[in-house]
Amino acid sequence: MKSKQKYTQEELIILLREKNQNAFSYLYDNYSQALFGVINAIVKDTEEAEDTLQKTFLKVWNNFSSYDENKGRLYTWMLNIARNLAIDSTRSKHEKIKSKIQSTSHAVDGNDKDAFVIDTKHELIGFNTIINELNEEQKNLIHLAYFMGYTQEEISKKLNMPLGTVKTKIRQTLIRLRELTKKEILS
Amino acid sequence: MSIEEIITSGLLEKYVLGTANADETALIQSLCKTHPELVKEIEYIEDSLMSYSEQLAPPLNNELKNSILSQLPLQTKNQTDTKVVNVNKNQATIKLYQLGMAASLLLFVSSFIYAILLQQKLNKVNSELVQLSETKIYMANALKIQQTNNQTLNFKVQVITNPKFKPIVLNGMNFLVQKTALIYWNAQTEELYFNANNLPKSPNQKQYQLWAIVNGKPVDAGLVDATDSDSIFQKMKLVKGAQAFAVTIEPLGGNVSPSLQTMCLLGNV
């Protein structure tokens, strides 16, 4: 089912606007696993992650006309959709649990993202080699910036770290990731 | 800010991660148009992030993709269907063309063969026509001869059945013993006809010459045509007051006076 044709980003965008299924198939082949990883890191349940991935791609297909390349990369746009759907999914699950235990005393502090920051590490270790090469701080930075979509300012606040340091550390983490993925491609 | 500063500022990471604001995004995009190295850097960041997250979940199975593709709204499915139909239509058109070509070729070949057959038939008809026209000429000639013969016969019958013409038998003598010729003479009109009857052909370079014996003297009554002297019915000279007729054999062109030794036929009136 892998698409044989290669498209440039520009071609892909034009064809997707034309609702071209081959282009969509290509899009899926090239981006699904990365988005699946992001979703899985958020929902921490493979079945739920698959379900969310489906929703993500259907949303991408149906709402492609709303994608504006002047506002960002195609992957960034899809990442945002995936992230939001995954967070929604987790939130509704949490709310179900919440309503089940009929907890009313829990005050919502206005930042739902907080609920998912803490217990990330253990769930992620199973599937990858690269993640083990990163230190805890780097993992956490990536998690916040990449999966949760925190801004650098939000991370700075959250981790009580100067903004400049956040910027530098995120950059260093990405450079480290680049080295690791390169190494992996070579090996 | 120089390109190097942009790259190290962490702005590109923000851009890819989706947390850059509108101004930052506009700045990066305008710089990307003139600085391909910036685009490369952005792609590196994106690739790194993707490679990282790809490892954070088990590999996807293909069924999920099929499931998603099958859920795409019908309208787009129709598009694909239409495309397939179009392809089929094209193939059908191509097939139709091929069929058309084959048919034309067949038509051409059969026309060619038919043309050859027609040519052969035409040649045959032409030669038949030539034969026919030859036959026609032959028949026309034959008819002409027949008509001439008929005219002659009719004339002969008219003469013979006319009571005014007296038939006179000329009896053979010398080398023509037992042969006879007939002459028909109308004493009033002086018309005279010679009928060869069973006379043999006149000898080579010789001609029968008819003489009328008037008052004991031979008078030239004309030469018998040498070519068919054995069957001829011929009009001779006018003869007046003859008592007898005689035939001699003379050289071609005849004689002024008969040579008695060659006299072969004689008959009295």
Helical amount of chain A: 55-70%
Radius of gyration of chain A, CA atoms, in whole angstroms: 18 Å
Radius of gyration of chain B: 63 Å
Give the number of helices of chain A: 9
Structural overview:
The complex is a heterodimer of chains A (187) and B (269). Chain A has helices spanning 9-17, 21-43, 46-62, 74-100, 121-124, 130-133, 136-147, 152-158, 163-186. With 187 residues, chain A is mainly α. Chain A is globular. Chain B is an alpha+beta fold. Chain B has an eight-stranded antiparallel β-sheet, covered by helices on one side. In chain B, strand 4 (206-214) and strand 5 (217-223) form a beta hairpin. In chain B, helix 2 crosses helix 4 (36-54). The longest helix of chain B is centred in the middle third of the chain and has 88 residues, at 74-161. Chain B is rod-shaped. Mean pLDDT of chain B is 86; it is low at 76-85. Chains A and B meet through helix 2, helix 3, helix 4, helix 7 and helix 9 of A and helix 2, helix 3, helix 4, helix 5 and helix 6 of B.
